[in-house]
UniProtKB/TrEMBL annotation:
This is V-type proton ATPase subunit a. The chain crosses the membrane at residues 401-434, 455-472, 547-570, 576-600, 641-660, 779-802. Belongs to the V-ATPase 116 kDa subunit family. Residues 91-128 form a coiled coil. It is found in: Membrane. The gene is ATP6V0A2. It is a multi-pass membrane protein.
Length: 848
């Protein structure tokens, strides 16, 4: 609890690492995660540091590993993942690993290249086979049409018939040629028009769509292809046809001149396709064997390369001594972990076989240490809520310890329904029970990952919601009669107060003064009879509104008290008298008194009193207005004197807050020169005087000016400026005084959200489930089942998810703004140790 209440005590230390054992020492430190390294070469570029070459080698190996993972996933081979991470490899193993990875990459690229070349050749031969099969039907159809034609002109007119036949062109000395191939189906129309316009009709185009889809060589996707055969006359026309085919990215294949050649080519293609299938199958088997063997070591290689890269990054933060034989590093380390640091350095020196061991020395400093809060799987979620506001200053009070209880409680006040809380508790219990399940631990879904990391928060929010729901006596908008109502209606008839004909009146009021009607308070929570009352909403609104004010005042007062603990720890006694006590008096004199009136009215005023109870609102307003006539109905004797005294205390606290601290600091810096030296306002003439230095230390202890107060200041002190200190204190005073009013009103959101949740739950019950329950019994089951399903779905998505998220955000706001700003600055920086625990234990879904 001590570590969770305040951050760990830190120290600045220097590590003296021998050049031959620095790698092993940092590997041992990385496994333990004990040191926060500082950059001793801030002015040196990243590309000019000592170990930049080793970092580039690690990046090259990461690139190779990424390529291997990509190929393994393409082959649908399962990537192994382990729970334990292998240690960082030795330096000699690094060279062996690099050489092995380079050989494996070269082999895979060569095999993959051959595989793609074989696949491309197979695709070309398949296309050629389909083209020959389809174009053969074109030639047969053309021959059949030529036999049917009996009359034709020997020299047809070019004006009347631009399509010249073979005999005409043969007489003119032209040579008949063929171009055949495949083209995309989407390009055939434009291709046909272009042929007609460029060749002016001196071509004959025949085409047909293939029955099956073939892979596109460029994209690898199945594509519909058109097989075409172009007949042309003349070499010039042939050149134009080939250029047009190239422009439309047609796949051109040679066309046999005779049927015999056609048959010979078809038979040769079939043999070559069968051979290619055999060779391709063997190539794929060999590639899969190589990938399977690589997948067995890919996890170890990946983790080891990441660890090596991290070690060399940290080595680049170190500086060399004059002899270039020793590396010097500065680290922040928890004081409690110094023995572990020394053991890690000894282990690294022993593994490297160095003759001179590495060692650590602590050094004094006035710089601000980082903040380290040790957490576990239960407290880490609540600590993340606090850290989202800001990392705490070094050694100041950590709100996460109290947030473990206050956060789920405040959430439950707004989400008070034991039915909904039970569902949330069961969901959190499921996540906690199966927290070690691999699918939950390694889930990459953002929403599921968020739920899993906050599983203990959800568990406590559900548990506290069940408690607050029992207090409100609210379960799915219905009351539970557990202990039996303490109101007895039958006594109203037995005492002859009511008559049977009075039951026609819709507005009957129970009289607690009648004997036997009210039999005492309900044992736990709200009496279930209020669910039948017409003024139920007014009663609950009054109760929840007053309860919200009481909880808010207690919460804010607790925050101010924690601020006093900070002043005591940092030995700032003047803040106790000039800040803490005035703040506490101001808050309690006004809003603490308001909470007292609420509790006093609950205890002192009952329904059996003959006189009406005084109004808290009227008395609280008159506390500031000082009316001319005195109130007749007071809560207690001497109430007016107490109110005036409390108001006077609150008014006197404001000038103390405003002027006290600035005037005191001004007196320390300027008004005490005649009494003794002070380090901010007086410069010593004899700096080497030990007596004066001891007097200064004694003065620091008496006045509370410890080194922690000056950790944000530089060694050369700035001149004290009174107006700056006064303006800063004035801003804080105005913010605190006005914030007490606004923050108290802000806690009314507890009442507002609780009312909204209860009313929304009641509306959902009335408009969905009650309809199914009121239907006739013969048809009720047909409507009750779907309506129950709708009710469950709406309950989960609206009341649990949406309303739960709303209450969660409002609870965060109340902790950040209303509670933490009373004592928590959040201006520190986090302790980020050099650790291998942050290395991912699983591969990403996508490798770029």
């Amino acid at each position: 609890m001590g570590s969770l209440f305040r951050s760990e005590t830190m120290c600045l230390a220097q590590l003296f690492l021998q050049a031959g054992s620095a790698y092993e020492c940092l590997s041992a430190l990385g496994e333990r995660g004990l040191a926060h390294f500082r950059d001793l070469n801030p002015s040196t570029s990243v590309f000019q540091r000592k170990y930049v070459g080793e970092v580039k080698k690690c990046e090259e190996m990461e690139r190779i590993l990424g390529y291997l993972v990509q190929e393994i996933k393409k082959a649908d081979i399962l990537l192994p993942e382990g729970e334990m991470t292998p240690p960082a490899p030795l330096l000699k193993q690094m060279l062996e690993m690099q050489e092995q990875l380079q050989k494996l990459e070269a082999e895979l690229r060569e095999v993959t290249k051959n595989k793609e070349k074989l696949r491309k050749n197979l695709l070309e031969l398949t296309e050629y086979t389909h083209m020959l099969r389809v174009t053969r039907s074109f030639v047969r159809r053309t021959e059949f049409e030529s036999c049917l034609q009996t009359n034709y002109e020997e020299f047809p007119s070019l004006e009347n018939d631009p399509l010249l036949d073979y005999n005409c062109m043969h007489r003119l000395g032209a040579k008949l040629g063929f171009v055949s191939g495949l083209i995309h189906r989407t390009k055939i129309e434009a291709f046909e028009k272009m042929l007609w316009r460029v060749c002016k009709g001196y071509t004959i185009l025949s085409y047909s769509e293939l029955d099956e889809c073939l892979d596109d060589p460029d994209t690898g996707e199945p594509t519909r292809w058109i097989c075409f055969l172009i007949s042309y006359w003349g070499e010039q026309i042939g050149q134009k046809v080939k250029k047009i085919c190239d422009c439309y990215h047609c796949h051109i294949y040679p066309y046999p001149n005779t049927p015999e050649d056609h048959q010979t080519v078809m038979e040769g293609l079939q043999v070559r396709i069968q051979d290619l299938h055999i060779v391709l199958h063997k190539t794929e088997d060999y590639l899969r064997q190589v990938l399977c063997k690589a997948s067995e070591s890919i996890y170890t290689w990946d983790v080891q390369v990441k660890k090596m890269k991290a070690i060399y990054h940290v080595l680049n933060l170190c500086s060399f001594d004059v002899t270039n034989k020793c590396l010097i590093a500065e680290v922040w380390c928890p004081v409690a972990d110094l023995p572990n640091m020394r053991r890690a350095l000894e282990e690294g020196s022993r593994e490297s076989g160095a003759s001179v061991p590495s060692f650590i020395n602590t050094i004094p400093t006035t710089e601000t240490p980082p903040t380290l809060i040790r957490t576990n799987k239960f407290t880490v979620g609540f600590q993340n809520i606090v850290d989202a506001y800001g990392i705490g200053n070094y050694r100041e009070v950590n709100p996460a310890l109290f947030t473990i209880i206050t956060f789920p409680f405040i959430f439950a006040v707004m989400f008070g329904d034991c039915g909904h809380g039970l569902l949330m508790f069961l969901f959190g219990l499921f996540l906690v029970t199966f927290e070690k399940h691999p699918r939950l631990m390694r889930s990459q879904d953002e929403i599921m990952k968020m739920f899993f990391e906050g599983r203990y928060i959800i568990l406590l929010m559900g548990l506290f919601s069940v408690y607050s729901g029992l207090i409100y006596n609210d379960c799915f908008s219905k009351s539970l009669n557990i202990f039996g109502s303490r109101w007895n209606v039958s006594q109203m008839f037995e005492q002859s107060v009511w008559k049977p004909e009075d039951l026609k009146n819709q507005h009957l009021m129970l009289n607690s003064a009648v004997a036997g009607v009210f039999r005492g308070a309900y044992p736990f929570g709200i009496d279930p009879i209020w669910s039948l009352a017409s003024n139920r909403l007014s009663f609950l609104n009054s109760f929840k509104m007053k309860m919200s004010i009481i909880l808010g005042v207690i919460h804010m007062t607790f925050g101010v008290v924690l601020g006093g603990f900070n002043h005591l720890y940092f030995k700032q006694k003047y803040n106790i008298y000039l800040v803490f006590i005035p703040q506490l008096l101001f808050l309690l004199s006004i809003f603490g008194y308001l909470g007292f009136l609420i509790v006093f009215k609950w205890l002192a005023c009952t329904a059996s009193d003959p006189e009406p109870a005084p109004s808290i609102l009227i008395h609280f307003i008159n506390m500031f207005l000082f009316p001319a006539h005195e109130e007749k109905h007071l809560f207690f004797q001497g109430q007016l004197i107490v109110q005036r005294l409390l108001l006077a205390i609150a008014m006197l606290s404001v000038p103390v807050l405003l002027f006290g601290k600035p005037l005191y600091l001004y007196w320390l810096n300027h008004g005490r020169k005649g009494f003794g030296p002070y380090r901010n306002g007086y410069q010593l003439v004899r700096k080497e005087s030990e007596e004066e230095l001891s007097l200064l230390r004694t003065h620091d202890i008496e006045e509370g000016a410890s080194s922690l107060d000056n950790r944000h200041k530089k060694e050369e002190k700035e001149e004290f400026i009174f107006i700056d200190v006064f303006m800063d204190q004035a801003i804080h005073t105005i913010e605190y005084c006005l914030g007490c009013v606004s923050n108290t009103a802000s806690y009314l959101r507890l009442w507002a959200l609780s009312l909204a949740h209860a009313q929304l739950s009641e509306v959902l019950w009335a408009m969905v489930l009650r309809i199914g329950l009121r239907v006739d019994a013969s048809y009720g089951i047909l409507t009750l089942v779907p309506l129950s399903a709708i009710f469950m779905v709406l309950t989960i998505f609206i009341l649990l998810v949406m309303e739960g998220l709303s209450a969660f955000l409002h609870a965060i706001r109340l902790h950040w703004v209303e509670f933490q700003n009373k004592f928590y600055k959040g201006e520190g920086y986090k302790f980020t140790p050099f650790s291998f625990q942050g290395i991912s234990l699983h591969f990403n879904k996508e490798i770029t």
